[in-house]
Amino acid sequence: MSYVYELSMSEVKIPRKKTPKRVTSTMKKEVIQACDYLQYTLPFSCEDCTHFSASNETCTLGLPTEHHLKRNQEKSYFLSGKMALCRFQEID
Ligand code: SF4
């Protein structure tokens, strides 16, 4: 047997470096068609939601609002054509 074969079949485990955990989770963004954005009045931001407290820009459900604020949604849309839609949004 060759040395390489024996080495490959041996039970010696080489310690591997683990990938560090991400600091923040990624936000999935949805593609919005430009014709839909222009044609319809879409409720896409926290400012359109009943759970939004405008005085301090927080969500009464305790969700992070940073990605769903109107200014950030519009910036994201104009740059990439995508928005981070909130699954818990409620409109009156
Ligand atoms: S439920 Fe979603 S859209 Fe509504 S305020 Fe909270 S984070 Fe914003």
Explain what you see.
A two-stranded antiparallel ribbon has the order 1-4. It has a two-stranded antiparallel sheet with strand order 2-3. It has helices at 3-9, 34-39, 70-80; strands spanning 30-31, 52-53, 58-59, 82-83. 11% of the residues are buried. The chain is of the alpha+beta class. The mean pLDDT is 88. 26% of the residues lie in helices and 9% in strands. The structure holds iron/sulfur cluster. Iron/sulfur cluster (SF4) binds next to loops. The site of iron/sulfur cluster (SF4) has 12 residues, from loops.
Chain-wise SSE layout:
Elements: H1 3-9, E1 30-31, H2 34-39, E2 52-53, E3 58-59, H3 70-80, E4 82-83
Antiparallel strand pairs: 1-4, 2-3
Iron/sulfur cluster binds near residues 46, 86 and 89.
Radius of gyration equals: 23 Å
**Largest sheet data:** 2 strands, antiparallel
In the sheet with the most strands, the strands line up as 1-4
State the helicity in percent bands. Answer: 25-40%
Bound molecules: iron/sulfur cluster
Order of helices and strands, N to C? HEHEEHE
C-alpha end-to-end distance: 76 Å
> Approximately how much beta-strand content do the residues carry?
5-15%
Low-confidence stretches: none
Secondary structural class: alpha+beta
Task: Let me know the average pLDDT.
Answer: 88
Total helices: the number is 3
